[in-house]
Amino acid sequence: MEWSDRHTLIVEQAAELFATKGIAGTKVRDIADAVGVLSGSLYHYFPSKDAIAEVIVTRYLDDLTSEYESLLGTPTDPRKQLTGLVEASFRVSRAHPHASEIYQNNTTYLRKLAAYRKIRAAARTTKNAWISVIEGGIAAGEFRSDLPAEVLYGLIRDAVWLSLRWFTPTPEFGIDQLAAAVVTVFLEGIESRR
Predict the structure, then answer these.
(1) Nearest-5° angle of CA 134, CA 60, CA 155?
(2) Please, which residues have CB within 8 angstroms of residue 175's CB and are 6 or more apart in sequence?
(3) What is the pTM of this model?
(4) 48-188 architecture in CATH?
(5) Where are the domains positioned within the chain?
(6) Predicted confidence band of residue 1 (pLDDT cuts 50, 70, 90)
(7) 15 Cα distance to chain centroid
(8) How many CB atoms lie within 10 A of CB 120?
(9) What is the mean pLDDT of residues 39-47?
(10) How far apart are CA 22 and CA 16, in angstroms?
(11) What's the CA gap between 167 and 93, in Å, rounded?
């Protein structure tokens, strides 16, 4: 399939609809109306609504795993790696608006997609990256050891992904500052610095 501007527009509009209405709650007609074409015309570009969802989620996860693998391939201290994971997560999410929300909120629907095995493999890869960095930080004595790595992972992961729903960057406090704040709060807490 040769990609066109129309493919891009369909994916962008579908992503916005999937994020707000869910994949199951979005009809092909909704996507067609958002793009300004007849419902049947969408099938010229994608064989199904599910195929559009697969493109959105797999492209996002491919970019995320690629960023994580690149980061972990460069030896550095655990704090820098943790900061790198947070920054990469925000960067990829900015490049794929709505994709992380679609991925997080449509897990039941995603299970029935043809690309589900690929999606699960990418999810395992991303989780393993976080766990590896956290366990490395614990082993190095840089991160606290009284909490299981899985618990720390869940807390940090949710702080990262959920903040994308409410955070609006300003000139004074942008995505880079948010990434630094997430790492600082988790590693140093919120006590006043003296």
Answers:
(1) 30
(2) 90, 91, 94, 167, 169
(3) 0.88
(4) Orthogonal Bundle (1.10)
(5) 48-188
(6) low
(7) 13
(8) 13
(9) 94
(10) 9
(11) 12
